[in-house]
User: What shape does this take?
Amino acid sequence: MVINAEQALLHCILKDSRLIRELRVDEGQFQELRHQRIFRAMKILEQHGEPIDLVSLSTQLREEMHIIGGYVYLNDLLRIVAEPEHIHTYERYIIEEYNKKRIRELAKKINETQDYEQIKEMAQEIAAISVDEQQGDFSLVDVLADIEEEVNTERDGVSGISSGFTDLDVLIDGWNEGEMTIIGARPSMGKTAFALALSANALRAGHFVTMFSLEMSAKSLLKRMICGQAGIHATKMKNPIKWFNEQDWERYRYAQGIISQFQGRFDIDDRSNVTAQDIWARVKANTRKYPTYRHLVIIDYLTLVQGSGRRERHLEVGEISRTLKRMARELDVSVIALAQLNRGVEQRQDKRPVLSDLRDSGEIEQDADKVLFLHRDDYYDRESQQSTIDVIIAKHRNGPLDVVTLYFDRATQTFANLSRGEGE
Assistant: This one.
């Protein structure tokens, strides 16, 4: 039955290519190899804004045409009897069959190994597979009542967790639960420093922050946070006894005092081999242990999260991205994932990033509710004395696109509202 469902789904896309945008099924979830290849080619065509028909599909498949059965099989798919309005039913059959198969594989491996860490990882993956999008009963009256309550309640500030930057909050309405935000930039542009500033602002506002640092130890991360909060030159932190002056010591102790107050609301996981399932498990534990707080999850950075190793990297990244988005909705947390940009941006005359610059997977853009890019002109002009950074809102599912300029001191890794010129 699942093979018929795969054929029916591909037929529906050939009949109406717009349907592919509504699907969450992944190439690797198809059981037939030729269906995997066809669906991947369809996704590529859709991402490039090209039509999905027999001509474009055969051109995209090229040397893989012999694997899928050539024009004969593509024509067979077009002649299948299936209704486009039932495409999500076909999709559900495919995903359910894949999940059953994967759970059986993992259960078998659990029985065959004595390694506790491997057993734990596989159990976490089974848990993540088992938890899908909530399909609770829908009550129109209840939802309308919630909306009525919202519109009659005076709002104080933003609805989400405040970024701490006024102009940015006006546009994005803070970091909302159930949403995933991608913050992308080239290396050393200021991604981690910005993430630490967002963390500190959320913590100072009384929220809970879970940060996954896959590239830097917790100690190094906190040193950078101290520099940002205290306004101390990062180089001085390498040898404070030698380079700190009296004012530096005062600022350092002040920052230490502020950050120490975050105890019990700031959790850092600095393992370098973390998986999406590990992230889900830790965040779930924190939300259960601290249910009264609003939770912000920051991942530094997305493409360092380990995948299953069963498929090409761009497909793994897409799978990780979808898992994190599901986690945001299931656990009712806000997720911010940092992402690297492709080197291609360096070759353009206009080096301001665009959505196609996201590295490893177009799926990241699709899953994200918001995509923000950091850009500094002085990054490409080392002689520049510029002390600002642009936050480019390139995707906003529920709001406007715009650019917010913030004050940024590279030496101290300090961000601030440009209009006020004071730290957040």
The longest helix spans residues 87-112. The beta strands are 180-185, 208-213, 266-269, 295-300, 334-340, 370-375, 388-396, 402-409, 414-417, 422-423. Residues 2-130 form a domain with the DNAb Helicase; Chain A fold (CATH 1.10.860.10). Residues 420-424 have pLDDT under 50 and may be disordered.
